[in-house]
Amino acid sequence: MPTADGRRDGADGPRPVNGRHSALTLTVNGTPHALTLDHRTTVLDLLREHLGLTGTKKGCDHGQCGACTVLVDGRRANSCLLLAVAHDGRRITTVEGLAHADRLHPLQEAFLERDALQCGYCTPGQICSAVGVLAEAADGFPSHVTPDTAPSGAPVALTADEIRERMSGNLCRCGAYPRIVEAVADAAAAGAGVGGR
Ligand code: FES
Ligand code: FES
């Protein structure tokens, strides 16, 4: 479990190596990595340039497109906005970590079934974001379009409006939005969980 300041239990925080680098440990898709990183390294660059996990895409590098979405301790985040040294002891899941052995995550299956992509560049971020959406709705997090009359803390039904609102931070330049909404709705209706490692 994360501690109050967000670190995992037992993690002491990054250890300074020199004025520019610190040592830390991150668990990515279930594998712990002991790393020494420049303090300016983002989680996105760590994943792509240091760990070779290129499924997570760099679109804007400014927190505006959602292409870099990953899960940090199960909650979605734009990895281009996260400094790796601030995440010592955290558990990160990328699109590469969603499948179990040769079985795709239900959201990956739903995107394929609905043909919810064209060029595919935004798709890893869309799928990671959708995994986060399912968890947030199940945990009762309201969105801007959740009715005021909805019972506080109760799971939120993922209507098309809810999906559109909750996925609005993930841009698709190919305009695959209608199929993306259908895919997320299919996965929600099938009771897909968070999954991943
Ligand atoms: S690359 Fe991170 S939000 Fe666009
Ligand atoms: S499928 Fe091309 S950007 Fe979304």
Automatic annotation (TrEMBL):
Region of interest: Disordered: 1-21
Signal peptide boundaries: none
Compositional bias segments (type: Basic and acidic residues): 1-12
Swiss-Prot/TrEMBL keywords: 2Fe-2S, Iron, Iron-sulfur, Metal-binding, Oxidoreductase
Every 2Fe-2S ferredoxin-type domain range: 22-98
InterPro entries: 2Fe-2S-bd (IPR002888), 2Fe-2S-bd_dom_sf (IPR036884), 2Fe-2S_ferredoxin-like_sf (IPR036010), 2Fe-2S_ferredoxin-type (IPR001041), 2Fe2S_fd_BS (IPR006058), Aldehyde_Oxdr_Iron-Sulfur (IPR052914), Beta-grasp_dom_sf (IPR012675)
CDD domains: fer2
UniProt pathway annotation: Alkaloid degradation; nicotine degradation
GO terms of molecular function: 2 iron, 2 sulfur cluster binding; metal ion binding; oxidoreductase activity, acting on the aldehyde or oxo group of donors
PANTHER family on file: OXIDOREDUCTASE WITH IRON-SULFUR SUBUNIT, OXIDOREDUCTASE, IRON-SULPHUR BINDING SUBUNIT-RELATED-RELATED
Protein name (database record): Oxidoreductase
Provenance organism: Streptomyces noursei
